[in-house]
Amino acid sequence: MKEFLFFMMSIRWQDVIDIALNSYILFRLYVLFRGTNVFRVLVGIALLWFFQRMAVSLGFIVSSWAIQGITAFAALIIIVVFRNEIRSILQARNLKAILWGFPQKALHTPIEIIVESVYELAERRSGALIVLPGKEDLSEVVQGGVLWHGLVSEEMILNIFWRDNPVHDGAAIIQGNQISEVRVILPLSYRKDLPSHYGTRHKAAAGLAETTDALVVLVSEERGTVVVAKGSDLDVVDRKEELARKLKEHVGGTTEEWGYLRKDKFEIGIAALVSILFITGVWLSFSRGLETLITLEIPVEYMNRDPGIAILDTSVNTVQLHLGGSGSLIKSIRPEQVQVKLDLEGAVAGANSFTVGHENITLPPGVFLRRVEPPAVEVTLDVPIRRELPVQVDWVGTLPEHLILTEARLEPEKIWVIGGRQILKGVATIYTEKVPLDNIRKTETITVSLVLDPASLMIAPGSKDRVLVKYVAEERLH
Prior knowledge:
The chain is α+β, with helices and mostly antiparallel strands. The protein folds into four domains: 2-100 and 261-288, no CATH class; 111-254, YojJ-like (1, CATH 3.40.1700.10; 290-382, Beta Complex (RNA Polymerase Alpha Subunit, Chain A, domain 2); 385-475, RNA Polymerase Alpha Subunit, Chain A, domain 2 (Beta Complex). The protein is built from 13 helices and 24 strands. The protein has helices at residues 2-9, 13-33, 37-58, 61-81, 83-90, 95-99, 111-124, 154-160, 200-211, 240-254, 265-289, 327-331, 421-425; strands spanning 102-105, 128-132, 143-151, 171-175, 178-185, 215-219, 226-230, 233-236, 256-259, 291-303, 310-314, 318-326, 339-343, 350-355, 361-362, 368-373, 376-382, 384-396, 403-411, 414-420, 430-436, 444-451, 458-459, 466-475. The strands form five sheets. Strands 3-5-4-2-6-7-8 form a seven-stranded mixed β-sheet, sandwiched between helices. Strand 4 and strand 5 form a beta hairpin. Helix 2 crosses helix 11 and helix 7 crosses helix 10. The protein is rod-shaped, with a radius of gyration of 45 Å.
């Protein structure tokens, strides 16, 4: 539980925004492309990425490399192969529809009107081509066309395909309850298996149906028959009920208009939850799975020390922190971002042991503490006092044989030092640094530094840390 709380505290506000932003982008991709071929390929790429991460975790180097290459190639396929579908989605009415609108099925598609109109045209032997687009964009497949934007009605359809109307030769595109374009030129099919009596109208219907997901209703001028083209199939439809069924199957699953969410709330909610969970998993994979380890040596700071108690000694002055995190975070760590602080509140005079844990360490968000060496610090505290101690020269070596040291005086002979009461009980003299007797050749005065032992002792304010040593060296009498 403690580790989990520390993990939650280590999450940066940037991480929260990062996860939320990418989750929303993934959710919008689902909303925009659901039900399309693009969405199915995106799901496939997500599965490839999952298998690639599994291969990395299991140490399958070749498999990981191969899946990574396939994933990159699949992403390229989406852009090249499905560019028309992507364009049709992004060509929504306004920016709001892309950023936060939700696609809803059209409230009304006048299928009955279309059916009645088609069979009326067939009875009159008036040729016609009526296109009901699917999800794919037709702008790069069809040519020409006159913008119409008229509401679908039987009179409108019959008038468009009236023989003396200038626009009757092309196809009419119906989207929702509107005829969006007329006199549209469709691509011709070059299939060899089409019946010989099929004319240009039939080949145009077959050509568009083969290259897109649109449904084309054709009325033969010569035979007065109704043909439905969908995919690679061209079916003669003799009954109105059969045509209505085919149109409902096609229009019911493909026609959308942009609006705010009114239904499918459960599906949308599940999609939003899955988006958050997926992006969180990706974030954990990159920030934890690809973890970089580093060891830093950080000085120990002490807080809340009683002014009447001094730190005499510590077992260590620095501790080693073994840290983990994503490579980018580890590389960006600055020394001032990592601190080790021990709270001396409640410590007593004498030896104290402090465990160095998460609560004593300050780390940048997103960086984890793996281990501390040493895990504990020994701190010796004592009440500081002032004491005057005599100074003595620390002579070393051997005086030359022809000389004799007759006198040695120090200025000052005593100094004031500050140290712990218990420490100063065992200290009777302060020594100078070592003065070699071998170098003495004559009487002179030298300046030498004092050596404080133990190191926790300090020279009191007003006292000097160096003394003068005046010595007299005379020739030895034989």
